[in-house]
Design brief:
Chain lengths: ~500, ~425
Amino acid sequence: MEIISQIINGAHGEIILREKSDQPIELGEIVVAEDDENNKILLQVYDLMYGSQLDDKRMELASGLSVEDKWKDLVFYDPELRHYVLAKARALAQVKNGESPAVPKRLPKHFSMVRRFSEADKEFIARQDNPLFLGNLRSGSRVLNMPVHINGLEALSHHMLIAATTGRGKSNFLKVVLWDAMDKGYCGILVLDPHDEYYEALEKNPASRENLFYYTNRKGVSGAYTLRVDVKTIKPDDVTGVIDFTPAQEQAIIKYRKEFGDNWLLEIARDRECIFEKEGVHPGTLSVVQRKIHTKLGVRFKDGDFICDNEVFDVSGGEKTIDDICSFLSSGRKVIIDTSMLMDEAELLVGSIIANRVLENYKAKKAGNRLKELPVIAIAIEEAPRVLAEDKINQANNIYATIAREGRKFKIGLIAITQLSSVIPREIMANMNTKVIFGNELAVEREAIISSASQDLSKDGKNIASLNKGEAIISSIFTNFAIPVKVPSIDELIKSAGPRPVAQRKVV
Amino acid sequence: MPRFAHISDCHLGAWRDKTLRALNLNAFMRAMDACVEKNVDFILICGDLFDKNIPDLDIVEQSASKMRDVRNKGIEIYVIYGSHDYSPAATSIIDVLHSSGLFTKIMDVEEERVTDKIGLRFLEDKKTGAKIAGISGRRASLEKYYYEILDRESLEKEAGFKIFAFHIGVNELMSGKMHTDECIPVSFFPRNFDYYAGGHIHSRTERNESGYGLFVYPGTTFGWNYNDLENTANGEQRGFFIVDFDTRVRNIEFVGTMENNVKLFDIDADNETADYLKNLLQKTADENNFENCIALVKLKGVLSAGSQSEIDMQPMRDKLYAKGAVNVFINRNALSSKEFSEIKIKADDRETVEERIFKEQIGMCNGYATNSLKGAEGVETAKAVLNVMKDAKKDNETKGDYTDRVVAKVSQIMKVKI
């Protein structure tokens, strides 16, 4: 194996390597220091700098002579010995005699030779149960033929954060995860898709016919289910979790719920007399609740009829929708809901209804000691600060915050996608036990992620800033170290899968 | 204005009980009479006209005679198979009656011609010009596959008043009770039809689906099992639709077919004794009017003392008949006692009980079972085999022929050589 550098100096967490002149090292590159006792220590470069045998004054003089044309033929004798690159690296993992990787507790031997990481070093990438593909191992910008998996069952119930600025590959990453998870029964995944961008790619997956369910109000999409929710399936907690109501308004809602059961929302919309006025519901309060229900959900009562202004909420159809979705998820299927035609609150409400029902169902299963046999359910939500920002998490009945805090006890996790990690409180960030970190130029955003990562990434600021599209770092409590990956484009996966097989005829 | 009748799920030949079987047939006869009386131009039957592919011949004879009368009055009858009267293995009575010219089977998917995509031909009703296309029901919802590869575009392009006949649940129209595996989403249907005439679902449903058209299920004309009768007692209407149309649907009218009331007596004996239940039954019999009704007595709960066997139902039955009931149906499936707790499966009807038992048992099948014997497919296979086994020997059928017929059907279902 070709030597590319040597350990010359440093301390734990800051090991200095001297680069071999014809073997340039990249920021983020993974290298291996090996000694004659069969110890292999994996190092990752986090900073690069120049080194020279000349002191600064001499280098400045030499440069002056050159750029000012005073000494045209200026050359350095043995330049590869006099001038070189120094790399700062930190130890990621250690393997001895082919055993499982462990966190290194000692320094590699002084002057150890260092070589590049290669596919032969596969022992550093531990095999996982319930493997979920996250990308291919990346060393600097070099992509290795080593797929990186995580234990999907564990990772998805412990929440996942996908953080990046626009255009760095967040959506592509989720598509790749869904593609890989498509036929894996250990996880049901719900995607609230505000840009309607997932189905087109994922329906090309060979296993999509049995495992992918797409809800939309676009017409003519063969095999798609109509996104229609019967308003009678909505409970007060679903609504109060995503729409702001005052305590008086919430009290009014509770009164209608007690009196009219599942018809509470319709009866609020219908009531022109304020039937609970004597019991303390002010007509003005009712009027505001009616207006909110109208503007946010589109439900109103006019000329003796209930009218739903949007196609999603319905007074006489869609009774099965929520139950169906919950059933798909709890049987390990993947559900995409096209919310591109919905207002923010309506989208979050649909997610909230499903999340509430899924959580209720799984809580009941846990009480009956039957949770083990069920798959984990993950709910993917774009622009996560809409529900997980500081001012949102303490809102009554915010199911997303509830899941972030205690969902893992019930095998329910969030996949939170965001450009603004900094507005998500530390308490919630700390619960996101797998972070997929894409490139980000904003120091404040990097800092928010670094400070809550599962591994020490305090020196990775530059590394994160320099990540190209599709390059990411996976920091997780389920990996031995923060793993750099290159996420393949979903188009590559589609291409390599070939055309989706035609429907199989089932003859009974 | 032209008009047609949309009927489905008559299940002629269903019910072992002779009275219920006759009442079921009677509901169909009433539907036919109403069609004549209301001057419909044609009748469209969307599956499960009969309860089996080869039903008892006396039922066939009586219903065929009635349909012949209707035909003789110039009313065409169009039919698709349902999940009950279709058989992949054998000829169906639908084929026989179609060949005899009694009615016209809507030509849908010809099994041997199915390739990557299937196109359907329209059948045009000569009197009204209405164009009908459709997909029949199949066992275990095999037709899902056909919808998936249906050439929708060519159907959508056709001009004129168009009806699409089908025999499957449409997910968006179903209540929470219907399992999604038995349904297809509305997006599998071709768009731009004026009327989507459904069968298979036993409850009346009408809904205008945005971007498609009017989807209608008339439900069953009488009912096929205890659940259907219970739903009738709970207010579900039984009958069919008459549809007025010209270039589009102008009006739809529901016409009832039930001659008798169905009354449900839901008796909860949970934590009560067998003696208490006996008294309760006596009181129910004494205090209610049963004249000309089908009486459903549904017992449920866990008896705290005594057992079900201590309760002799015959006196109750006799009393109800004496008070004018045309039929008495006593359902004890959901009744158990603490003394005899061996009943683990509780359900309202035999089919549900069978399905649940299969699900439970199939869950125990491990490595040796092939995929077709596991999971939902395994349950469907087991149900199909059981249905074949339930099929009684026909009159004039030799024992040997009967055995061969059953063995052939079972081997086809299980895809094994026996």
